Amino acid sequence: MIEFLHSSWAIIVILMFIITLSRFLSAYFKNRIFSYQKDFRIASFTFIVLTFQVILGLAAWFSSPYFTGIQQGHMRSYLQSSHDRLLVLEHPLMMLIAWGLVYIGFLRMKKAPTSKKKFMAVILLYGLGFLFIISRIPWRNWL
């Protein structure tokens, strides 16, 4: 059940990143003023959606057979298989790094003195986080 929710929620996360990044890129190049009513809310919502996804992912990871296998000493065999390595190590680690980048982007957006810098903080750090997320999604399992 948790795995299904985690996989389904990923679609919402991807859509939110696309909406946020396209809006912020457009605002940056059009020299728009940062709006707390719209821009701040969409960046906040994207961060909240991603945070919920990370919580679901951690719950799924700790309740998975892989975690039990690691406790029983099967980590070496997981690392030898590229698919298992992706699910056990690469995917969770990259998602946590991506969450950290988005968190830093959110904080920088809040503290930036100008609209341009607010937009650029989100574009760079949310964008980098999004690339990390897209690069480590287990597409074979998901699709």
Could you please describe the fold and organization of this structure?
The protein has helices spanning 2-29, 39-62, 65-71, 75-80, 82-111, 115-135, 139-142. It is mostly helical. It has one domain (2-142). The longest helix is centred in the C-terminal third of the chain and has 30 residues, at 82-111. The chain is elongated. The model has no long low-confidence stretch (mean pLDDT 93).
Order of helices and strands: HHHHHHH
Kindly state the percentage of residues in helix: over 70%
Number of domains: 1
Distance between the termini: 17 Å
Number of strands: 0
Low-confidence blocks of residues: none
Largest sheet: none
The fraction of residues assigned to DSSP E strands is: under 5%
Average pLDDT rating = 93
Judging from the principal axes of the Cα atoms, what is the shape? Answer: elongated
Structural Rg: 17 Å
Individual helix count: 7
What structural class do the secondary elements suggest?
A: mainly alpha
Quick recap of the structure?
The protein has 143 residues and is an all-alpha fold. Helices cover 84% and strands 0% of the residues.
Keywords:
single chain; 143 residues; mainly alpha; elongated
Sequence-ordered SSE layout with sheet pairings:
Elements: H1 2-29, H2 39-62, H3 65-71, H4 75-80, H5 82-111, H6 115-135, H7 139-142
Helix pairs in contact: 1-2, 1-6, 2-5, 5-6
